[in-house]
Amino acid sequence: MFTEGNKAFDNRITRLFNIQYPIVQAGMLWASGWELASAVSNAGGLGLLGSGSMYPHILEEQIKKCKDATDKPFGVNLPLLYPDIDKHVDTIIREKIPVVFTSAGNPKIWTSKLKENGITVVHVVSSSKFALKCQEAGVDAVVAEGFEAGGHNGREETTTLCLIPAVRETIKIPLIAAGGIATGRAMYAMMALGAEGVQIGSRFVCSNEASSHKAFKDAVVATNEGETVLALKKLTPVRLIKNNFYNQVQEAENNCASIDELKELLGHARAKKGMFEGDMNNGELEIGQISSLIKDIKPAKEIVDAIWNEFVETYNHPFYGK
Predict the structure, then answer these.
(1) Per-domain boundaries in the chain
(2) CATH tag, 2-211+292-316
(3) 225-268 per-position pLDDT tens digit
């Protein structure tokens, strides 16, 4: 439902997060610092800090800087496999963060504690089965992410187009779509399939405020169809841009490398090397399939405005909309 002359959208997601538009910026490794999160929140969406690439003291610093940069709600993405997860949770509670998106783990572990402290909890899933488990665990909403998405993915390889209606039929709590979304038309499509909001990652990587390296942003803009691949399925599946590191992974997997051999090849801080330090040959370059449609780097506010305006235009179109 539109309000104030199409300047806002009123539904369960906007009310849950107290935001203007049902647009969430994903909390991505090495890209989602305070500058990006605050810019998205100031633009009317929900910005997320990507805590998975932050030491505990860094997260605390980022939260304080984000608070200084916006008076709008923002949240923290919390990968549950993070080794210092308890320290991150303590920081989030102490700093009174209103929203936490958890991922890569069992939502039952931390949901109760977070909610007891007045925090809205959303969990990221890749299947209807896990969406139902999230609902049973008491989360406030679910992000259903298709395998088009960048970063870590589910092993099922279910596309967003198939995943969203399946999850919608399975759960009653609010649903956010993710994976392959970078435009207002795609946002409209997800809402038509049953989502009540969208989470967008790759498009925001190519923003001025993203903390990722300029060389990585340029590589994303230069990526064409078919130049990202889901790899490392024996470990944790991750979508990568094809480069020298990916070629090594492909060769190892074709030779039936063991899990230990793949771990050795991956090594330490491979994602940081690529996405944050700018090593385009030997770094792990995580991005979504939608990168082939991203052709420029621009301010986060312009990205939010462009997505929203195109969504409204599609919504009001005599063929597609109301």
Answers:
(1) 2-211+292-316, 222-290
(2) 3.20.20.70
(3) 999 988 888 878 889 999 999 999 899 889 888 898 888 888 88
